[in-house]
């Protein structure tokens, strides 16, 4: 029995592929945690993200979950897109 080591490198013009990733058609919710020192700062950050999402995908649905912390405010922003491709495109644009 022999073991061959294959060190082939594939390049795709700046594209990174994570092997083993599977994109499901129902994976259309983007969850964004926002942590801020106070409610006003969390609101500003959330509004920026909501405005970006609504500007590009008017039919997206927004859910906000706010939690008070000792050191500030945590806000969970869930954005539901009509399809997985929209979620992926929006998420990549944030990076």
From TrEMBL:
Belongs to the UPF0381 family. This is YfcZ/YiiS family protein. InterPro entries: DUF406, UPF0234-like_C. It comes from Motilimonas cestriensis.
